[in-house]
């Protein structure tokens, strides 16, 4: 396993608000894992926790993150720093605000090449230009002198991908990489991610609330709800026969353009509970059509079903 | 860029012209210079002779046009007090003031900016609170009071430094410290909040995610962004230094523009006061101009709009 997250828990420093509660994730070398769920369910915090980038108000409350067999918690800060941006690269939602407005494109890329690959001077510059060309930015030589505000959002996301590729990472963490972009640009960025994945064979952890993005890129997907993983499965299985009622409801919310499918999208009733005031047992039970008395009393464990699918539900949707 | 410069130059000239006019009008209506310059028991004939000598018997409009014409041709008149050319009286004081304010500015930057950065990095710790309490204290004390306190401690009690005058570098230490400490307090507070705001930006998190060392994040990623508002604030500080010169130079009997201004005003030496106000205004205009240029240098987004690319 390249990345193994076990029983990861995050809570707020001040009070007892649990942001993540016993999250387990596995990601093999070269695999693409999609992490999907509604806004605020903890997807991004999972990424930050893996990359050791938690905001000041949050702390790890338990669990471990192992990268390539090594417990990240056992490493000192310089060693973790060599991993970040080196073997683990990250790209973000809203690329423009994640790029330093006073640094030129060339400075940004050359910095990464210098830091993690020891290139400098002309070598770094040539490699930076090559990276820009590789992510489809035309007129790369001239654009080395540009600033991020002179680029469109899509170009800035390409630039972040070039920066991620600069260090030839084993794992790319992509936190909602297409959410802030318009639809045609989204498709281009997804194409680009697919291409670089095919070229480099790096593993990708892609976070999105958009099931379409997950369906397109991921080999396997994990569904997150209120800080917990409620289902993981190979992508085809997840969409064909979701086992958890929440997954099923999420898929039911997706509009479709299939002429044979006349079902209108079905919104999930009720609203997402507040993390500060979660219902007991399974956090989804008050909104669930399949709830049983036990659902409000105990947390259902993530139990393996067939074919690599597992679900945290006492009364899963029949998948046969 | 040349359009920007021409525009700024024109605005500077308009500012200077308006200041000259305003000061002229205010001063002419603030009292009779003859009464202020001459002793109270001067004869009416002596008063009249003084007015005639300096052209004060003519109409205000006439005096104004005469004054503006003279300024335009580089004639600034003579001191009513001792008859020396105003330009000599004032220019010999300019370097004295520039030494104090320049060294004061460097001192306040060297103390204030690092203190603010340190406090921002240790946000909400004891070190942060102590630094910021000192800064609030320093910010609240009027500069002349701080000057008197420094004189008391270092000149009167410890006898390390002279309390007044301008003989050698030792005379400059206390006034520079007064400027530096008072200004550093404000800049430290401002630097802290600017750094905190920048350190919360997404690009700082992205820099951490790229494995960049903390010291590099602070100085190469955060500080260049925070310096944009800090430079604006420093512009106000320079203005404050020049204004403060009136008090600080008087406290330390330092023969600069500030103490010279106080003396000229109390003597009713109109020609000197007018020219000094003109010099102060010219300083302020050039400080503002420098801030604008620095702003464009530091902030690439402004540079672009200046080229008319938007």
UniProtKB/TrEMBL annotation, chain A:
Please report the stretch or stretches of sequence annotated as the ABC transporter domain.
3-251
SUPFAM superfamilies, alphabetized? P-loop containing nucleoside triphosphate hydrolases
CDD domains (alphabetical): ABC_NikE_OppD_transporters (cd03257)
Membrane topology term: Peripheral membrane protein
InterPro entries in the record, alphabetically? AAA+_ATPase (IPR003593), ABC_Ni/Peptide_Import (IPR050388), ABC_transporter-like_ATP-bd (IPR003439), Oligopep_ABC_C (IPR013563), P-loop_NTPase (IPR027417)
Give UniProt keywords alphabetically: ATP-binding, Cell membrane, Membrane, Nucleotide-binding, Transport
Q: Name one GO molecular function term.
A: ATP binding
Q: Which residue windows are coiled coil?
A: none
UniProt signal peptide: none
Where found, per UniProt?
Answer: Cell inner membrane
What highest taxon heads this organism's lineage? Bacteria
Q: Which family does it belong to?
A: Belongs to the ABC transporter superfamily.
Q: What is the name listed in the Swiss-Prot or TrEMBL entry for this protein?
A: Peptide/nickel transport system ATP-binding protein
Origin species: Kaistia dalseonensis
UniProtKB/TrEMBL annotation, chain B:
Question: How is this protein positioned relative to the membrane?
Answer: Multi-pass membrane protein
The residues that cross the membrane are 12-31, 98-121, 133-152, 172-191, 230-255, 275-298
Q: Which InterPro entries match?
A: BPD_transp_1_N, MetI-like, MetI-like_sf
The residue ranges of the ABC transmembrane type-1 domain are 94-291
Major location category of this protein: membrane
UniProt keyword list = Cell membrane, Membrane, Transmembrane, Transmembrane helix, Transport
Pfam families linked to this entry:
BPD_transp_1, BPD_transp_1_N
Location in the cell reads:
Cell membrane
The family classification in the record reads: Belongs to the binding-protein-dependent transport system permease family.
Name this protein carries in UniProt: Peptide/nickel transport system permease protein
Q: What lineage does the source organism belong to?
A: Bacteria, Pseudomonadati, Pseudomonadota, Alphaproteobacteria, Hyphomicrobiales
């Amino acid at each position: 396993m390249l990345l193994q997250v076990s029983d990861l828990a995050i809570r707020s420093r001040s009070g007892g608000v649990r942001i993540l509660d016993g999250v387990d994730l596995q990601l093999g070398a070269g695999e693409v894992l999609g992490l999907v769920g509604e806004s605020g369910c903890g997807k991004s915090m999972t990424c930050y926790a893996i990359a050791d980038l938690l905001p000041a108000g949050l702390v790890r409350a338990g669990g471990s993150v192992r990268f390539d067999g090594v417990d990240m918690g056992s490493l000192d800060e310089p060693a973790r720093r060599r991993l970040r941006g080196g073997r683990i690269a990250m790209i973000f939602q809203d690329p423009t605000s994640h790029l330093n407005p006073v640094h030129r494109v060339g400075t940004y890329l050359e910095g990464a090449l210098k830091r993690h690959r020891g290139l400098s001077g002309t070598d770094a510059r040539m490699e930076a230009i090559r990276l820009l060309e590789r992510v489809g930015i035309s007129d790369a030589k001239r654009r080395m002198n540009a600033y991020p505000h002179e680029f469109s959002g899509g170009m800035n996301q390409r630039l972040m991908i070039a920066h991620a590729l600069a260090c030839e990472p084993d794992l790319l963490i992509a936190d909602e990489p297409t959410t802030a972009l318009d639809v045609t640009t989204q498709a281009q960025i997804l194409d680009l991610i697919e291409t670089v994945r095919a070229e480099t064979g790096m593993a990708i952890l892609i976070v999105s609330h958009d099931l379409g993005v997950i369906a397109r890129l991921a080999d396997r997907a994990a569904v997150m709800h209120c800080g917990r993983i409620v289902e993981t499965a190979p992508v085809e299985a997840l969409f064909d026969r979701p086992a958890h009622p929440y997954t099923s409801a999420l898929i039911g919310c997706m509009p479709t353009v299939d002429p044979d499918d006349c079902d209108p999208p079905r919104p999930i009733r009720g609203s997402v509970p507040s993390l500060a005031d979660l219902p007991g047992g399974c956090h989804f039970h008050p909104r669930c059509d399949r709830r049983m008395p036990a659902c409000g009393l105990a947390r259902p464990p993530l139990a393996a079903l067939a074919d690599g699918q597992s679900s945290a539900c006492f009364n899963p949707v029949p998948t046969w | 860029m040349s359009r920007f410069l021409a525009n700024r130059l024109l605005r500077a000239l308009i500012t200077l012209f308006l200041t000259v006019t305003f000061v002229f009008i205010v001063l002419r209506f603030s009292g009779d210079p003859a009464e202020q310059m001459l002793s109270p028991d001067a004869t009416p004939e002596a008063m009249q002779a003084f007015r005639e000598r300096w052209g004060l018997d003519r109409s205000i409009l006439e005096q104004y046009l005469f004054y503006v014409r003279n300024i335009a041709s580089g004639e600034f008149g003579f001191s009513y007090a001792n008859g020396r050319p105003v330009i000599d009286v004032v220019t010999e004081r300019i370097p004295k003031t520039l030494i104090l304010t320049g060294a004061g500015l460097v001192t306040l930057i060297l103390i204030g900016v690092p203190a603010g950065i340190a406090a921002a990095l240790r946000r909400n710790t004891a070190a942060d609170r102590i630094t910021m309490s000192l800064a609030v204290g320093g910010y609240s004390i009027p500069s002349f009071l701080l000057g008197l306190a420094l004189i008391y401690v270092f000149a009167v009690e410890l006898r390390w430094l002279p309390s007044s005058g301008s003989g050698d570098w030792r005379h400059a230490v206390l006034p520079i410290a007064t400027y530096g400490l008072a200004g550093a307090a404000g800049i430290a507070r401002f630097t802290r909040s600017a750094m905190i705001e920048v350190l919360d930006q997404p690009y700082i998190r992205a820099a951490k995610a790229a494995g960049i060392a903390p010291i590099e994040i602070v100085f190469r990623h955060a500080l260049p962004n925070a310096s944009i508002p800090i430079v604006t604030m420093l512009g106000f500080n320079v203005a404050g230094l020049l204004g403060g010169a009136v008090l600080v130079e008087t406290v330390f009997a330092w023969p600069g523009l500030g103490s010279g201004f106080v003396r000229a005003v109390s003597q009713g030496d109109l020609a000197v006061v007018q020219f000094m106000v003109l010099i102060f205004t010219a300083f302020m205009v050039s400080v503002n101009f420098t801030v604008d240029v620095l702003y464009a240098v530091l902030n690439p987004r402004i540079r672009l709009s200046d080229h008319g690319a938007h």
